[in-house]
Predict the structure.
Amino acid sequence: MKKRLPLWLLCGVMAAGGAVCGAQSAQDQLTVDAKLNQELVRLGGQLMLAGKAYEYDEHLADDIGPRLTGSANYEKAVAWAEDEFKQMGLKNVHGESWTIPATWEPEGVATARMIAPHEQALHLVSEGWSPSTPPGGVRGGVFYLDDASVEGVKAAAAKIKDSIVLVDGDSLRKHPGQPFGKLFDALDLLEGEGARALVLGLGAVNNAPSMVGVTDFKGTEANIVTANLGMEDTLLLKRLLAKGPVEIEFSFKNRIRKDVTVHNVVAEIPGSGDNGEYVIVGGHLDSWNPGTGAQDNGTGASSVLAVAQAIEALGLKPRRTMRFILFGGEEEGLVGSLRYAHAHAADAGKCVGDFVSDSGAEAPKGWYVFGRKDEADAVTVLKPLLTGLDAWNTTDSGQFTFSTDEGPFLVEGIPSFVLWTGVEKYMQLHHKPSDTFDKVDPRDLNLGVAVVGMTAYAFADSPTTLKHYSATEVEDELKGIKSLDEYKDMQAHGLF
Ligand SMILES: [Zn+2]
């Protein structure tokens, strides 16, 4: 058996002597000694058998309800989470405020109907961050835009003028992999081309709305009235349009408030060491409104609270500080986590890992590691423990790289992880009215929470840590997982 010199000690000595300690060394790995192993077993057991995530999620989803960023419900969830963290005994519990350009909440129920070729009620709601319809509503002929790109809009300009423009999944698939920013660029042009409204036919089966939001990753109000139409109604309109003109009308009222203060919630378990290093355990607290956000992201937010609660309940003292963060504004484009990362950029070098949950509560498989082999190796170090949870795998899929709150930390070179779960059932309810507490399986939820807690705690307590990536290494990483275009696009939109 080989003995490994504790290089972090050596680094300290060399640094004191004025020498530069290289970023890359044998310390760039996770180390689980006997004490840490024992603590991880206790933590995993606590979370599986006495974890509180299910109870927290019930409160968020059923008692508080939908948590649109900046809404009264959202701030109620903020106050509740702060109170819970304080009761657990966490330190430095506080809200960190930032300003969202606009908040959005529907007032009352939308009305909608097809007028021609025959009269029929339509299943339509306001899309998130849409302005209200003008007095009397919107009425006009429907034009189906089959290519939702800047080029597609320009090519169809004559038909867009004075029309209600319908965009559906097929219009988006015309340019597969088109970054969100490019889609927003295209939709932004519709108002200038004289469209009366935009109707997104991205709803789900049974004519249920599936919210997407039409902001530009910044939480601004859309520049055009935008509705969300049910799937079956969308398909009907498309079939009828193939035969002749279709006319519809609809009306809804939204409450828009400008420049609203929103809070991220931050709480800490201080590290027993004093070198300022920390891990982040995070997830977003906000949700969409048609359901109650039980799994997007009630379960993820509850995981953050439950991990903190279990560590406190066991009296564990990690070497590094564990910082628990609940973000707002994720659904409007990672706004809360971007603001947090920007505000704490000077401190980013001390963050040894961030661990985010945001894919519902199906049984976990392991972790998204975004192309970082050292992260996959770190999960392998934990495999003997995670095997018991059937969740020791990693994936390099770049499908969700900028889909949740790890993105702003990943681009700073921080080792970043997102819990990898099954999403088969989750995608059926994602952003829909059916995202409610009755779908949550407590055992599957606890499995995921245990994976998050054990992995984050291991990073907080391991004598060694992974390195930070340089800007070039981050770009190489993103290129390897086919997420570089999306990153560049977000940079071009002023987000990073
Ligand atoms: Zn989410």
